[in-house]
Design goal:
The protein is α/β, with parallel strands linked by helices. It has five helices and nine strands; from the N terminus they run ααααββαβββββββ. The strands form two sheets. Strands 3-4-5-7-6 form a five-stranded mixed beta barrel.
């Protein structure tokens, strides 16, 4: 009878995993946990879980009258609970959670990435710093950041406009913040924070809220490294975009 129960439980857990992936996919939350390039693999896993679950159910029905003699030592009840909770807990969280964004506390512990290098450099390096006004979009975010980091001595006084969420660390001063974006290469575990230091009247701009800001660039520092800094001119609060992550393939330089 134990074998009957265990086989049924394992089949239900695999079915639950498949349904959880399906729920995240149709709700649009799947790309908050994994990069779009990983979605086909997740859907393949969904199909595999459903098939294996059905096979597991079929196996337990066919084996009801088989001898349940065990030649190996049975794991303790505590070990069984631990084993199956590794499946059960993620399934429950996947169904009940509605917000999959990283919290401000988690981001503050990670800090901002100070440099990045595109794996594929197919753009005209330096073209953005030669513009009268630098407009940062999702498509050119890493190009602009790369150009500014490599041309810090020539960016003084140039105007820049970009959108992102407000980010702060405990070490930031009252008139200091960062406007940031999260990048994901594979999944939320490798999510990396990129951003620009901002100086100005930022006291009333709440952490994690989204803004479009305009300001002038200058050379500054973050944790001892030279970085572009924005002197704030204007800010406008906006709604968080449906696709909050950037998915550019980048290699972090430590």
């Amino acid at each position: 009878m134990k074998s009957f129960f265990i086989q049924r439980l394992e089949g239900l857990l695999l079915l639950g995993l498949g349904l959880m992936i399906f729920k995240l996919y149709v709700s649009g939350h799947l790309t908050k946990l994994i990069a779009p390039k990983m979605v086909p693999y997740a859907l393949a896993a969904l199909f595999a879980f459903l098939v294996i679950s059905l096979l597991r159910m079929k196996k337990q029905k066919q084996g009801l009258h088989n001898c349940e003699c065990e030649s190996h030592r049975e794991p303790s009840p505590a070990m069984k609970v631990l084993k199956y909770s590794l499946f059960f807990i993620p399934i429950i969280l996947g169904f009940i959670l509605t917000d999959f964004t990283l919290s401000g506390e988690v981001l503050a512990k990670r800090g901002m990435a100070q440099q990045q290098t595109p794996l594929v450099s197919s753009y005209d390096a330096g073209k953005h710093v030669n513009s009268e006004k630098i407009s940062v979009t999702d498509d050119n975010y890493f190009e602009v950041l790369d150009d500014l980091l490599n041309n810090l001595d020539t960016i003084e006084g140039k105007e820049i406009e970009l959108s992102g969420f407000i980010y702060r660390e405990d070490s930031f001063k009252e008139k200091q913040m960062a406007i940031a974006r999260l990048s994901m290469s594979c999944c939320v575990v490798d999510a990396t924070l990129y951003g620009y230091m901002v100086n100005g009247n930022v006291k009333n701009m709440k952490t994690n809220d989204w803004y479009t800001i305009t300001g002038t660039l200058k050379k500054g520092s973050y944790k001892g490294e030279a970085v572009p800094v924005i002197d704030l001119k204007e800010s406008k609060k906006i709604k968080a975009p449906e696709e909050a992550y950037l998915y550019e393939n980048v290699e972090i330089i430590q």
